[in-house]
Amino acid sequence: MEIDDVRISRKKPIYPVGNGLAKYLKIYQRDGRFPVGYKDLLNFTETVPVMDKYGNDTFWETPLYPPYLQDQLYNGLKVIYAILKASGNTRIVQHKIIDRIEYCAFGNTKPFRIRIINTLNDVYDYFYVKQADASRIYGLELEEILSPNQVNYLVDRDTLVEEHIVGIPGDVFSKGQIYTPDYNQTRIAKEFVKFNERCIISLLGDMRAYNFVVQITPDFDDFQFRIRAIDFDQQFYEGNPKVYMPQYFKENLPYVKLAMDHLNEKTVLQYQQEERSSIVHRVRSERHRIKDLRDASSQQVLSTSENIDRLRRGYAAFYGNDAYAKCRTMTDIVELNVKNVIRQVTL
What we know:
There is one protein chain. This protein is 42% helix and 18% strand. Strands 3-4-5-7-6 form a 5-stranded antiparallel β-sheet. Strands 8-9-10 form a 3-stranded antiparallel β-sheet. It has helices spanning 19-27, 38-41, 67-86, 134-146, 170-176, 185-202, 253-262, 265-285, 287-297, 305-319, 330-346, and strands spanning 46-51, 57-64, 96-103, 112-118, 124-131, 153-156, 159-163, 168-169, 212-218, 223-229. It is globular and about 60 Å long. It folds into 2 domains: 19-163, no CATH class; 168-346. Strand 9 and strand 10 (223-229) form a beta hairpin. By secondary structure, it is α+β, with helices and mostly antiparallel strands. It contains 11 helices and 10 strands.
């Protein structure tokens, strides 16, 4: 595994939800009707920076709203939470209040992070309201289909609402916890190899350490680890193949070093093969859904012709497979990746 200085020069444009994707979302019950939308949350008068407990800028801001508008937004956000969590049953928010709204102008979709708290026991939860970006939605769907993780989100026209994904941010984990004596570093390295393989196949880009989380589950004799993506803004847009390979980001050096220290070439190949086999199993069980997703994505533009050409040439060289030259869209490349995985596993 290697490290490079992979850079993304500019933010990806927002691609609106096309008719094909809108139909797909309705079929698979990802569509919703919200009392307030993303644009309503933009009606703040000013913002205040959010600092962490050490006084560092978090790149999030607290938007300030006029009192009459704040009450309307807070009530609407409680209903959205009920729709996301309980199919619209508002009884689950009877004793909940919106504790705060935070805004991040730094991200591609400029998300709002909503903290909702139960007044009976102070237990809180988060969810996100974002601009509905078609390529991000495709990323969420591919995560649902190709990975071992489930995602919970809904779309209403230009508004995307996502459930919070629990875990320790990858950069925080790599700085303070990765070498915890009770943790088996080989298991962490194994999970990074499998995560790297999923990203390469699904074209999930920009998986620097702060764009994924580490989930830790105590087992009866050890700890289990899973790395989960939390940012899908760079789903199959960039033309540089290394953007889809977490091993090349310098922010992921601790994970790469762990793999180099604890794994050899044979075990890396074994873990890659395990992940490919898991993907094949998921594709077979969701073959109708992935076909519908492919058909929906073929109806709209999701990248530039220059990026597609560069990526198909890069993947042709990476895999030594001239068939990539026939790919005309980013989803063609994903489809060929999956077909190649199926062939490898079934040989």
